[in-house]
Design brief:
five-stranded mixed sheet; single chain; Hypothetical protein af1432; binds fe (ii) ion; about 475 residues; Tumour Suppressor Smad4; six-stranded mixed sheet; alpha+beta
Length: about 475
């Protein structure tokens, strides 16, 4: 890596990374600390019903020594020897089957609604009111819990947008775009110019209604599975390209050409046998070589379009090249910055969505992954735009603050990616605030995001995309 680039990369990592590591090393302050073990405590706890809407949710004993871990329980209890509460006593989790309460191998046991749980036993918990006692029947730590299934009231990503005078839901618009992308990619193999005309129409339509790109991006961030993986991925890369290119001031015509090229970037994947594309197991070397051939095939299939839109073959050919020369097929280092923009969002889209061989990571983890690479595989200017566009906590993600309050990111500061503006919806007891309020973390140094809770199960359950 050349020196100035590596210095710039280091600086960028420092800017983002130092705050990250400082935060990771900090003792995570407890969300709620309950102290005392008298009868009064028991009454106090039972009197105040705790509403639990966010999972996983744990309760445990407060440590005397600061703990370096991100797994600190949400509710910490000040307990004195002989301890009745284990360090991590119980956890409430949600998965495909429902909400579970699990005893975390506690020393003194757990009682739920009068029934004793064995160490490590997990039981399904119906939404509604429950009585939970930590540490056996006589323990003072008895809680009234209300487990609420509907965690996202008011937080849904499927908003309504007004499109040419009509109210349209983003999910429906996305579904139409997906269908259209699938069609135009299929048509390419019979009638190239008809397909390109379709791609241009779609691009013009979205550019004309630029305001819907953000909503579509947030919607597409949900890692859903589509029947045509290639079309689904191509549509997302197209949307991400449009989103990012609007931030760097690319001339309108180039932006249009680049977005069209993004739609075709993986055209060559249709030549890869379906059993390789859809293989559930790790790909072997030979299969990986077959996958890699898609850049060359895509370029060959689109090269005759060079006169009309040189970015189409260029993007198809070079979107897996990297500036450190680690890419393919030619391992070139000097790819055009426009192509690199697509390469970057392509990489990001892929790691944050399902593939038959693996699950997705969250956008937050995706940005971290790109920044933590040993060698910069993308130009620093592009990485900056990328952080600006995709942020560590993208708008619409749901986060828990160090105070325990939960809210939704409504705005980001490009220069302070870890300090978004959050609209708070729930207090630290999990109760819905009567009135939501906004806090700007950039001007509140004592507050920070403790956890991104827009996790996979959460997204799958609440943002399903009925494709196919
Ligand atoms: Fe590709
Ligand atoms: Fe791709």
């Amino acid at each position: 890596m050349d020196k100035s680039l590596s210095e710039a990369m280091e600086k960028l990592k420092r800017e983002v990374g130092s705050e990250l590591s400082a935060r990771d090393k900090l003792e995570n302050p407890p969300v709620v600390v309950l102290s005392g073990q008298s009868v009064q405590t028991r009454k106090l706890l039972l009197d105040r019903e705790m509403v639990i809407r966010h999972f996983p949710f744990s309760i445990g004993r407060r440590r005397t020594i600061p703990m370096i871990s991100r797994m600190e329980p949400e509710i910490l209890i000040e307990d004195v020897p002989p301890f009745r509460i284990s360090r991590k006593h119980v956890t409430l989790r949600r998965d495909e089957l429902g909400i579970w309460l699990m005893d975390e191998k506690s020393a003194k046991g757990t009682v739920l609604d009068g029934k004793r749980l064995k160490a490590s036993e997990a039981v399904l918990v119906e939404p509604g009111a429950h009585e939970l006692i930590l540490g056996g029947y006589t323990s003072p730590y008895a809680f009234s819990l209300r487990v609420v299934e509907d965690v996202v009231a008011g937080l849904t990503r499927d908003e309504k947008i007004s499109l040419e005078g009509k109210d349209v839901s983003v999910s429906l618009l996305y579904l139409h775009l997906y269908d259209f992308t699938r069609k135009l990619l299929k048509v390419f193999f019979q009638d190239t110019s008809a397909s390109v005309a379709m791609a241009q129409d779609m691009t013009d339509y979205i550019m004309k209604n630029d305001f819907c790109i953000d909503a579509l991006y947030y919607y597409s961030a949900a890692p859903t599975i589509a029947d045509d993986l290639i079309a689904h991925h191509s549509l997302n890369v197209f949307l991400y390209t449009l989103r990012l290119s609007s931030m760097v001031g690319i001339p309108v015509e180039t932006r249009r050409a680049l977005a069209v090229a993004a739609l075709y970037h993986d055209l060559g994947m249709y030549d890869v046998p379906a059993e390789v594309v859809g293989k559930r197991d790790t790909l072997n070397e030979k299969e990986f070589e077959i996958i890699k051939s898609h850049s060359v095939t895509g370029w060959k299939r689109t090269s005759h379009l060079a006169k009309e839109n040189p970015l189409i073959p260029a993007v198809a050919y070079e979107h897996h090249e990297r500036i450190d020369g680690s890419g393919y097929p030619r391992s070139i280092k000097d790819l055009s910055p426009y192509v690199e923009l697509v390469a970057m969002v392509d990489f990001f889209e892929a790691i944050t969505h399902y593939r038959p061989q693996r699950g997705p990571i969250t956008p937050h983890e995706g940005v971290r992954k790109i920044l933590n690479m040993k060698e910069a595989i993308f130009r620093i200017e592009n990485l900056k735009t990328f952080i600006k566009g995709f942020s560590l906590y993208p708008v619409y993600s749901v986060v828990r603050l160090n105070t325990g309050e939960v809210g939704q990111v409504v705005d980001v500061h490009p220069d302070q990616p870890l300090r978004p503006v959050v609209r708070l919806h729930f207090d630290s007891f999990g109760e819905a605030l009567k009135e939501t309020r906004e806090v700007d973390l950039a001007s509140n140094p004592n507050l920070y995001v403790r956890q991104d809770i827009s996790d996979r199960v959460f997204i799958d359950r609440y943002f399903p995309l009925p494709l196919g």
